[in-house]
């Protein structure tokens, strides 16, 4: 088809040549086109893409891909937030950065690079934390796309966008598209705040990795990682107690590696390597460029579909909202519906049930909030219906309440009582109903 048949906006056909193919998607009807949702092929969806204001959170591995994809899909008004600066180790996959950029803020360098390559696209960087911005800031956007590696930041933006929803104002509903990768695995999901399952509803999908019990490390290791952890946790403490372990010091890693290797040989375990030692000790999950590319592509596809209604997006109420990619076993994706939870502390209104041993202490309970997959709170503060049970800050409240930590729960609470848990990292109040086992 001649380029002239493609509708043009803001200039000549030549200028739109770059978007010839996406313009074709938007200027013709199709089998999957969402006509019920008001899709009218032609100028309108093209203008929708150009005028949509998109916020990208994260300008790292996923963020570079997302910014590039959005700009090349025809989005022209993009903002990006990232608090990090570029490290030399980012350069193998964060392709918007060069050696000369090391030490510079990721958001600024990424924005400038994409703007130079895609004229007409404006990317406004903000170097800082998402928590620096208020509700009015987030209200200006139509879609939020996250490419983050922090669960805490995801939970914060999720709670903020749920809070933003005003039933009287449909524009206050900001679709949230979240991408995440870990090695060969990744996910992309779409959330319509308050309407569909939110990140907090899905928190147990991201359970903290189970720690290996110390006894396994000390007695019978089964995996190469156990031998490394043994060298790391037990042997270092025994033999080099006076030296602080520096995970960036090759001599320290070599020492651990040799200890781990000897132990592995003793138990006939193969697979201990220097780089595995480094990975286990630094708790690094390898970042894989292709996984980032796949997940970012899926996220940007959803953004494009939401902005144009040219095809049904995932995430509509009652439909699939979560795409899981597992590249370590095969090239495999699975899309399913994660349901909204009535006892979600962010988008639900019921307290979660919490079964506790009545003779265990408040201290045990406080500690358990860090490990519970559905809470993952590192500094929980607890209040019962009548009183403060425990506060880790401010110091005065801590002094008043820390005596409770050693008390058994049945002395402080009654069966069926509701407690409110807060954490300085989140604005959410986590409500629990305590049941004695
Ligand atoms: Zn929720």
From TrEMBL:
Pfam families hit by this protein: E2_bind, ThiF
Signal peptide segment: none
Gene Ontology biological-process annotations: protein neddylation
Catalytic activity: ATP + [NEDD8 protein] + [E1 NEDD8-activating enzyme]-L-cysteine = AMP + diphosphate + [E1 NEDD8-activating enzyme]-S-[NEDD8 protein]-yl-L-cysteine
EC top class, as a word: ligase
Recorded metabolic or biological pathway in which this protein acts: Protein modification; protein neddylation
InterPro entries: E2-binding, ThiF/MoeB/HesA, ThiF_NAD_FAD-bd, Ub_act_enz_dom_a_sf, Uba3_N, Ubiquitin-activating_enz
Entry similarity comment: Belongs to the ubiquitin-activating E1 family. UBA3 subfamily.
Physiological role: Catalytic subunit of the dimeric E1 enzyme, which activates NEDD8.
Protein name: NEDD8-activating enzyme E1 catalytic subunit
Species of origin: Acrodontium crateriforme
């Amino acid at each position: 088809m001649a380029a002239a048949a493609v509708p043009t906006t803001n200039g000549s056909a030549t200028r739109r040549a770059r978007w010839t193919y996406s313009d074709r998607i938007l200027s013709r009807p199709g089998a999957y086109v969402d006509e019920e949702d008001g899709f009218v092929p032609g100028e309108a969806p093209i203008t929708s893409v150009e005028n949509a204001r998109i916020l990208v959170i994260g300008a790292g591995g996923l963020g570079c891909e997302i910014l590039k994809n959005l700009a090349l899909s025809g989005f022209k008004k993009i903002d990006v937030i990232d608090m990090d600066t570029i490290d030399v180790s980012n350069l193998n996959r964060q392709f918007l950065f060069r050696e000369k950029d090391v030490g510079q803020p990721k958001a600024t360098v990424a924005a400038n690079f994409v703007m130079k390559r895609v004229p007409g696209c404006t990317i406004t960087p903000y170097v800082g934390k998402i928590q620096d911005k208020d509700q009015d800031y987030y209200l200006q956007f139509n879609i939020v796309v996250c490419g983050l590696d922090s669960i805490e930041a995801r939970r914060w933006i999720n709670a903020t966008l749920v809070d933003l929803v005003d039933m009287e104002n449909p524009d206050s509903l900001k679709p949230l598209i979240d991408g995440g990768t870990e090695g060969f695995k990744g996910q992309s999901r779409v959330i319509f705040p308050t309407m569909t399952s939110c990140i907090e509803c899905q928190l147990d999908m991201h359970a903290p990795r189970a720690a290996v019990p110390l006894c396994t490390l000390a007695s019978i290791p089964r995996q190469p990682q156990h031998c490394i952890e043994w060298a790391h946790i037990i042997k270092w403490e025994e033999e080099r107690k006076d030296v602080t372990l520096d995970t960036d010091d090759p001599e320290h890693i070599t020492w651990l590696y040799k200890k781990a290797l000897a132990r592995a040989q003793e138990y006939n375990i193969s697979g201990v390597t220097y780089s595995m030692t480094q990975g286990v000790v630094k708790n690094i999950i390898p970042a894989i460029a292709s996984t980032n590319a796949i997940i970012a592509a899926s996220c940007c596809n959803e953004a494009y579909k939401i902005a144009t209604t040219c095809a049904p997006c995932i995430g509509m109420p009652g439909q699939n909202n979560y795409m899981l990619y597992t590249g370590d076993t095969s090239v495999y994706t699975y899309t399913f519906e994660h349901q909204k939870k009535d006892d979600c502390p962010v988008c639900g209104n019921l307290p979660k049930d919490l079964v506790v041993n009545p003779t265990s202490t408040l201290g045990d309970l406080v500690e358990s909030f860090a490990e519970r997959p559905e809470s993952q709170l590192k500094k929980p503060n607890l209040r019962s219906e009548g009183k403060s049970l425990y506060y880790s800050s401010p110091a005065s409240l801590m002094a008043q309440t820390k005596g409770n930590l050693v008390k058994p729960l049945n002395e402080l609470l009654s069966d069926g009582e509701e407690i409110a848990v807060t954490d300085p990292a989140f604005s959410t109040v986590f409500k629990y109903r305590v049941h004695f086992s």
